[in-house]
Amino acid sequence: MSLSWWSQWWKQSPSGGNEHAPKKAPTYRIRGVPNDWDKDRLETFLAERGFISRPSVRSLAIEFHGRSQTATVLFDATSRLPLKIPLPDSGDESHSLALDPGFLSITSLFTPCQQDHKVDIIAISGLSGHAFGSFKERNGEYMWLRDSLPHAMVDENGKNTARVMIYGYDSSLPNSDSFQNLEDLGTALHFTLRMLAVDGKFKPIVFIAHSLGGLVVKQFLMSLSNSSDELDKRLRRAVYGIAFFGVPHDGMDIRSLIPMAGNGPNRFLLESIGSYSSQVLSTQQREFSQALGGQGETELISFYETRMSPTAVKDDEGRWSMTGEPAILVSKASATHCRPWESGPEHTCAIHRTHSDMVKFADQDPEYDKVLGRIASLAKRAVHMRRSPIQPSLSQPEQECLKSLAFERMQSRGNDIDRAVKGTCEWLLKHETYMSWAATHQGLLWIKGKPGAGKSTLLKFALSKQRDMPSAADRDLVLSFFFHGRGDALQRTPLGLFRSLLHQVLKQIPGALSDLVDSYQEKCREIGAPPEAWQWHPEELWHFLEASIPRLLGARPIWLFVDALDECGEADAVDLAMKFKSLLDSLPSSATQNIHICFSCRHYPIPPDLDGVFEICVEDENGDDVSAYVRQRLSATFVREASSIADLITSRAAGVFMWARLVLERVLRLERQRASWGKIQDEICSIPPDMDSLYLEHIQRMEDKAASLRLIHWLCFAVRPLSLVEVYWALAVDADCPHKSLTECGSTEDYGTDEDMERRVIALSCGLAESIISTSQTNIVQFIHQSVKDFFVDRGLLVMDSSSATVDEAIGRAHISLSRTCIRYCLMEEFCQLKTFSSHELEAQFPFVSYAATAWTTHAHQSDSLGVSQDDLLQLFRWPSSDLLRQWARVLDLVVTNGLDRQPRKTTLVQVAARYGLPRVLSAILQNTRRIRKDVNLQDEDSRGPLSWAAESGHESIVKMLLDTGMVEIDLSDCFGQTPLAFAAESGHEAIVKLLLDTGEVNINSLDSHHHSPLSWASENGHEAVVRILLDTGQADINLKDKFGQTPLSFAAENGHEAVVRQLLATEQVVVDAKDNQGQTPLCYAAYRGHAAVVKLLLDTGQAEAGVKDKEEESPLSLAAANAHEAVVHLLLDRGVEVESRDAASRTALSWAAASGHDGMVKLLHSKGAQLDSKDKMRRSPLSWAAANGREAVVALLLEEDVDVNSKSLFNQTPLSLAAANGHVGVVALLLDKGAAVNAKENDGRTPLLRAARRGHEAVIRLLLAKNADVDAEDQDGGTALSVATKYGHQGVVELLKAHAMTSTESPQ
């Protein structure tokens, strides 16, 4: 080959042949290598350049854009290298190889075959690091990311699956002119990674991040989570795992680095990651945790250094070197600032290297083995987890509804449960019963066992292994909930279960819960926003969940895992088990083929004869697991005679992990005292084999019995789990506390540190209580196991409280003690003259105030219900004065965020007793007052009297007491016109409704400000018994309309209360087709909500017009079709409703179904004769609506039926234009594949490309450009895609269009 072209170019090189000559052999990056070249050809080409000696091509990989390859090449140290080398037959720089040693931005080190490519691994270097050199062997050329890692990422067929890339950025310290901060660095990474999309999709991503690089990744993810851009949402979904290497989450030692930066512009970046810059890093950590999502959505691994690093010093010639005094640059605590469920050895690992060297590995390096195994597993899980469907984009109403379902500790119990010790629980996957359940088409599995047998750990293990089961599929919908008997109310009740499950469903398949979202929106319109104005009810949520199951099963199989059913209470546990069973039994056989339900529970209270249930008894199977657990604990502490001790403990544990755990604690304590083997053996044998006797032993070992009893009271009966600092104040302010201020209380016993308080909790409980880190990073105090709480409630309290004769008395005395502590706390001098505080500020200054202000009434009610006298309450609040009571109400008003929990300032003790159910308090007041008439009728600022509060709260005994005075005004209405009878009817308190009616002094048809009557309230909420009582009087106006025109029948039909609808119809006085102010009948409401049984009831009367239309001319058919209620559609069509009937906008039912994305409904309507190409008044077709709303399944279905792909609306908008404008990448791809006109113009001259450019939809633009969209097309204002993108600030689009313009003008290589 002639070199004349090369010599000529070299002489004309802009650098004049004066290239840099590195002192040691560096690795260079060479970009622009043609795709058809291999390593040999590149190496030969370089070697033929006469001035270059011995080039060695170490890697060659296709770059992410696919246009060329990138190589890493090692040159001789003495080589003089140009920055560009023209390719043969070129002669100009546009077709040249580009050389650089800097490795900035993305560099591909390895790219697998396209069909095998499953995951992307992206490595990012740290502070003052080099994208390539930071990961290279010290004093060698081995680079593990290039030379080893790609070849370890293989599938079951041995095919390479991972593309490995590095990302470089400027983070140098000396003489830097960069003033980038973390946000700038994160934004740059964000912009770069968007370019990895292919057709709008990303491969699963795993990051390897060293030092500062980890903080950059965190910042990138925070930026990503705040974006509403569709491509960003897909990118966020793609990110699964991060391997952090020495990342200073809580800061690093920068003392030696500050002089290097001097007063340069990069000093702020350096100081922001220092150990004392808590504001920047703590804010980042908090927002990063939110951006990551919950357990299972992402995964973090943290590596930390265990060798001190040399620090930076400056020599006499002004040169910096790392030869100073050794220091720990990033502590273990800072490097492993991880989530609670990722604190085990599989997620945290020591690397015995310095901070810089912890990412430098040699070939056959034993430290590398630790890293490789974890990263390989992480990548494998990333591929596995990201196979599931991409989370859909939720509309604003869906997002708000989702928020109303969420609660703070929704996932915390599942996270708190320890993962199974390695080698344990594996037997479950091979258990014959388990395999039969997993293989069956309809399955309910009960994992039963004794308290402490390890049921929760086993169920968590089963949940984690669901994807590995032969019958599992990538598209499975996996739902889970872990009851927590020691948690707050939502963690231990069916309401929390239903909220959590619906939250999971709505987040993944929102279309299945359109009725729930509609109900949420209606409640917000009519009542206000939750939780201040209203709260979800468990039965209505179960109804929504139950109704959604058939719709869900039509799309995806369901696996439901529910732990600790017994911890929600006996009655609820039995009810839920029966609900699960009846749910499976009620489903048609075709649907039940795809649903599996697994729950864990003790042997009691679930009936042992529950038909058709698979059962596994844990303690019969887990002997080997207990042994493995014991041996691991013993081996970790190098206990003598470990094998013999393990055998003895295992044999006596009888399959109960908790027994083994407590016995191990004693053994380890004896081992620390160097006790003999004989003494340890005697100790184990002397410990009672049953748990209750073992717990009783712990009570006998308690030294400060009084303080221990107070702690046990709080742990047993606190309304919610208390934090360490709350427990401190709960113990410091005793029920009989003589102090008047919190300052005095606190001075008697110093809190010390969290560690001091933890030790105190352990000491007072004799190890039966612990402090754990909650998901909100708060130290929560709880019993070590639910069985401990059960023991104390059943018998332990009575043993500790010698003054009580019965268990109920001991519990009642506990509650009264807790209530008095709370009251005394609220009445301390610090709260007498409170300034204006926000809730957050008040709780920061007074940590126990929120609990004390909100919970004393609950404890007082519990003690009252157990027969404990409340006479001292009058004295405590200095009754008849209301000053102290109003001080509490003022404090309560500051801490509650829910308006429903607010206590009116103008309140009295009578009203408090009535609202919270304190009959003994009310009795004491009535016996000691001379102004009964005034007290029982006194109204607060909401004009509510005691009877109103008691009727709403369902306190029957209080209502009787008030009525028995003969002086209460029974029909007294509040400021909204609602009477006690209306409140009782709304809440479903039938006994109170009957009491009030029996007085003969109530107006049964009283109307509130919304014109709701008591019958309306009872019908709306489905209170069948109350409706029956009201109808039986013969005086209730059954057709009374509210201010919006709805009748009781309309309310019952809307909410699917079939029994109430039957009752109302049975009177034969109800107007079945009564229209509201919008012209909607009860049938319209029932069809809209999908209540097929109610629809059938109404139609069967012969009085409901099946084809009725409201003021918008929408019919029950279009309402049902828009919400995918197939059963209702069948009913209506069978009654002769015209399938092509149109509304005021001339839209058909099929048009609505298409717009809502219900492909099954579209098929059904089409099979019944509905036209696929019908157009409305705006000339939009079903395809146009589906495309505009991003309904891919419907678009695909319609295109298969050969509808007009270029159908134009009134404004000449095509489906492609509508989809492009809204950024629906998948729809755009479908339309383009069907030949949609890529340059079709609307009336204003805008093309799909102009539409997408205006909104900044980069992925859509890439698709359009690939189909030769006209980039120069102008709208009626003369705007082009580039000018429009520039105008609206879409920089990514601008860069994309400019790059396209450059490449389109070049000739092919």
From TrEMBL:
Q: Where are the ANK repeats?
A: 942-966, 976-1000, 1044-1077, 1078-1102, 1112-1144, 1145-1177, 1178-1210, 1211-1243, 1244-1276
Repeat as a keyword? yes
Keyword DNA-binding in record: no
Among Pfam families, the record links this protein to: Ank (PF00023), Ank_2 (PF12796), Ank_4 (PF13637), NPHP3_N (PF24883), WHD_GPIID (PF22939)
Residue stretches making up the GPI inositol-deacylase winged helix domain: 703-797
Q: Where is the Nephrocystin 3-like N-terminal domain?
A: 423-602
Question: Matching InterPro entries, A to Z?
Answer: AB_hydrolase_fold, Ankyrin_rpt, Ankyrin_rpt-contain_sf, GPIID_WHD, NPHP3-like_N, P-loop_NTPase
Kindly state which keywords UniProt assigns to this record, in alphabetical order.
Answer: ANK repeat, Repeat
Recorded protein name is Uncharacterized protein
Q: Which organism is it from?
A: Trichoderma parareesei
